[in-house]
Task: structure prediction
Amino acid sequence: MDRTTKLYKAIQERILILDGAMGSLIQTYKLEEEDYRGERFKNHHMPIKGNNDILSITQPQLIKEIHTKYLEAGSDIIETNTFNATTISQADYDMQAAVWDINYQSAKIAREAADAYTLKTPEKPRFVCGSIGPLNKALSLSPDVNNPGYRAASFDEVKAAYLEQVEALIRGGADLLMIETVFDTLNAKAALLAIDEIFDKMGKKLPVMVSGTITDASGRTLSGQTLQAFIDSVSHMDILSIGLNCSLGAKELEPYVTELSEKAPFYISTHPNAGLPNQFGEYDQTPEQMSALISKWLEAGKVNILGGCCGTTPEHIAALAKAAEKYHTHQKVKPPEITHLSGLESLQMRSDTNFINIGERCNVAGSRKFLRLIKEKKYEEAVDIARHQVENGAQIVDVNMDDAMLDAKEEMVTFLNMLMSDPDVSRVPIMVDSSKFEVIEAGLKCLQGKSVVNSISLKEGEEIFLQQATTLKRYGAAVVVMAFDEKGQADSLERRKEICSRAYKLLTEKVNFPPQDIIFDPNVLAIATGIEEHNNYAVDFIDTCRWIKKNLPHAHISGGISNLSFSFRGNNVVREAIHSVFLYYAIKEGLDMGIVNPAMLQVYDEIPKELLGYVEDVVFNKRPDATDRLVDYAETIKNITQKRVKLSKLLGERVIWRNA
Result:
């Protein structure tokens, strides 16, 4: 039985004990500069005292001794001494060149210690966990208050740093990996992507733990995410566990561990601090006090992996190990079959969820004002447009920079970084919208939440479609799939069914893409154009919605609603009525979301009866002269100003529509 199998067996049988703090014990050795330097770094050009990770090279026996103390205390899992062992973090000491050796040697030392104890007690194997820290640079936060769009590092730089660390840890003998003390989920997503790529490169896969940190009583990470949004953002990986560590003690962490155990479809880990620090930055909570607090969690069955963070010692771990022997391990909750999206906050798409409005005004192709602001580099004013959409009820913000006069990739990155610095906008998920896949991928590298991509299609064939879908899955994004294939755009019911069913089968069977993260756009096409072949477009779209909901389980449906009324541009009263009638019936048949201008909607029941009759004739293609009749009628109401209503009222109406 290999070690991974043994680990999964053990975690199902009992609560596993993780070790405690490394730094706390290193401090007890009172090391000086020359101890850190050793022979290898004797002539290094700058001080390195405090760089604990380097001790795996210069003081390997000391690190092994600490591991041994934790193993003696009852730890099943010991962490490598690599919390800051990336090129980015080691740059503080100008020791980037030593990063591979630090990680490799750290894993090797821990491996030797764990194997020695496994030999003593083969019935209780010990495991080595590669510790992957959060870095000293955040991808979601600007270090410059005067430049909110600035980032101290790029996603690719962070991923490259993690790539080196992860491979060295695995080659040194790690059994599992833990991305810990996550304060910025985008950093963690870069680490997860790096891990996935190394697994592919090495042809092996290890269990992965993800452990975040809640910074205060708000229950959010430092980068602003709620706990549910954090879960949503990392759930695309097949991880062993999700958990919390650092920042808080056991008492303060308890409600958040409870929330994780109730919501997350993974095993649950936690390694809190030994209480909160005193005025001198020291931790006073005794092993007995910590154990008493955590025993309440254990009795309630909330935890699978338990350890300690800042201020904890082998004595703390021994007390926790003794307490854990009395209780059963946590039973994982069932994975949700509903769609979870997130920005700083979570957006869940259930069968009883309101129609989801996707704000359309941050699209350079659809808003002249937005295009002008981007061209003029007036990003703060452009962010205002996004904020106004959210204030008016948009639950997702669509961002598109595809214009011949713009560098779409550069503008997407610049604008999204600005957008993520605005708490009012960044709380909602973002739809990264582009016809260029490189722009889509660049956009995803700016977003810590679970986003939506608009869009991919079978236009260029199956191979490219599957490549793109695989990449998006690695980023954890949901995807809009256009009803478009090698033959062209679907413009009939049968063509829509043909393309959507083919795409669904490819995504679910060849990519293992979660079906709840598939959103079909069956093409909202213009009606009332004067071309007879266009007259049934709305009917076919609505019929397609019904068919998708019946035949493609858990998939969602979206559309660009304003396309429908394009032939009536300039007459907003008629356009609003067409949109509202179409949505009224399409939502009943399963339309979940749409790219909509909230200012161009009416409440169905408030549409004047005469106008409603003309519009329904056109939408449902009831009579050959329906378009001519609506055109004639539209001339009589051109200058009428329609009463506006808040989108919240419209959405309230639509709950009734869907459940009717």
The chain is about 45% helix and 15% strand.
